[in-house]
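Assess this one:

_____
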Amino acid sequence: MALTQETAEKLGISYLPDESYAKARGQLQLSLNGVFQPFMKYGLDVFVPGAIEEVLKLADGFGLRVRGVDQPIDIDMIRRETWERRK
């Protein structure tokens, strides 16, 4: 579920403009790159970008959940959404 400004207002939760959201997400992604750096040294570098993207999606779901949006925090749901987009 993507949070829109309209949905956020209905739910009474804060909403970041796209530019601010992209900046915050980029900062988190850079931090995750640092966390996953050791995996890159052991030949797992091909998996790191995908793993980081899944962690970011989980973080988005977590952020919505703690603000009262009934959003599942589920890696299988993320994988299903990705598979559906590839079809």
